[in-house]
Amino acid sequence: MNLWRKLAVVVLALMMVFAFSACTNNQTPETPAETPETPETPAAETPSKSDTFELALITDVGTIDDKSFNQGAWEGVEAYAKENNITYKYYKPTEKSDSAYINSIDLAVKAGAKVVVCPGFLFEVPIHTVQTTYPDVKFVILDGAPHAGDYNIEIAPNTYSIFYAEEEAGFLAGYSIVKEGYTKLGFMGGMAVPAVVRFGYGFVQGADYAAKELGLSDEIQIKYTYVGNFDASPENQAKASAWYNEGTEVIFACGGAVGNSVMKAAEAAGTKVIGVDVDQSAESDTVITSSMKNLSKSVYDALTAYYAGNFPGGTSVTLDATVEGVQLPMENSRFEKFTQADYDAIYGKVVAQEVEILNDSAVVEKAGKPAEEVTAGDIPVEKVKVEVIK
Question: Residue 233 class from Cβ within 10 Å (0-12 exposed, 13-18 middle, 19+ buried)?
Fold first, then answer.
C-alpha cells in the first residue's frame, strides 16, 4: 500500500509540472508592469553633471521669445554658451514678485550657475538680496542697479549693473523717421519708468534735429503718452487706431507687448511702427525700424569678461553709441529715403558728441521745476510740437 501511495504522489507531481509548463509556454508574452520609480532628490538640489547649467538667465514678466528685452539678453547668453561649449538654461518665475524672482535665482544657483543674467529693473530688489546670499556667484543686471527698495544703490563685488543710453537710441529713431519724410508722429510708451522716458525724450529731440537740418517750415507733430502698462490689449490697440485715424503716420511703440497692439492697428490702417529694444522687423511688415539697445552684445561682452578673469563686479555702466550700446538695425529697416550713409553720418556725430541729447535728468534740470511736473512738452525743441496726452 505504501508503495502504491508513493507512486501515485510521484505521478501526480509529474502531471502538475507538465501542466504548468504547458500553460506557461502557451501564454502570450506581455509587457512587464511598470514598477514605481524610487523617488529621487530634485536635480536642482543635488545636480548631477548632466543637470548642471553654468550660465543662467531669469526672465522677467515675459519669455525668452518675447521679441523684446528678454529675447535680446537670452541671445547674448546663448551665443556665448554655444561658441564656448558651456551649459546654459533660462528660468521663468511663477509670478511677478520679488520672492518669485529670488526663487528662480535659487534654482539656477542650485543647478550650478556661475553667472546669472537678470534683464530688467524688476530685479533690482531681488539682486540686492541674492548678491550677498551667493557671494561666489556673479550677477549681471540689465537696466537696473541693486537696492533694498529704498533706491540707495548697493552694488556688491559680484554684481555688474548695465544701463543704456536710451535717449540716444530714441534720438536715432526720431531723426531717421523725419529724414524719411514723416511729419505726423506718435510716441506710445508703456509706463513712465526712466528707460521708457529716455527713449521718448530722445525721440522728440531726434525729430527736431532732423527737421532743423532739413529746414522744414512746418512743425513736426508728435502725440505723446504712456498707456500705463506693458500689455497687448484691445484698449492699447484702440488707442493706436484712433491716432492713426487722426492722421498719425508712424508710432514709436515703446512698451514691450504694447508694440503688438500698435502693430495690429498699423496693419489695419496701412501705417508704420517703430519697434523697441531689439530688431522687431520680423514681427510685422509695418515695422519700419527699431530703436535698439544692443542687449545681446552687452551680455556677450559681460560673459567674455567673466571667463577672461576680469568680471567688472561692483560697477555700473551706461552703454552708449561710443561702445555700440545703442543702434538702429539698418540691415532690416524698411527705409526708402534714409540711407546707410545718412545713418553712419548721424551716428558718427552722436559718438563724437557733436549733438547734445538730453536724458530725463537733464530735461528736468533745464525745465527748472519738480521732476514729477516735467513732461515731454518741457523738452527744449524748435521744430516739434508735442501734444502730451494723459
Answer: middle
pLDDT of residue 50: 60
Residue 377 burial by Cβ neighbours in a 10 Å radius (0-12, 13-18, 19+) = middle
Q: What does each C-alpha distance from 285 to 182, 192, 333 come to in angstroms?
A: 17, 28, 10
- The letter for the amino acid at 74 is W
Q: What are phi and psi of 352, to 5 degrees?
A: -80, 0
Q: Is the pLDDT of residue 212 over 50?
A: yes
Burial class (CB in 10 A: 0-12, 13-18, 19+), 230: buried
Mean pLDDT value across residues 111-126? 96
Cα–Cα–Cα angle for 152, 154, 158, nearest 5°? 165
With 70 as the cut, is the pLDDT of residue 11 above it?
no
pTM confidence score = 0.83
Copy the grid coordinates of residue 248.
Answer: 498719425
Query: Running DSSP on this structure, what letter comes out for residue 276?
Result: E
Rounded to whole angstroms, the maximal C-alpha distance in the chain is 133
Give the pLDDT of residue 66.
76
Region for 67 from its dihedrals, namely left if φ exceeds 0, alpha if ψ lies in -120 to 50, beta otherwise: left
> Taking CA 228 as the corner, what is the angle to CA 224 and CA 230, rounded to the nearest 5 degrees?
100
pLDDT in tens, 345-365: 999 999 999 999 999 999 999
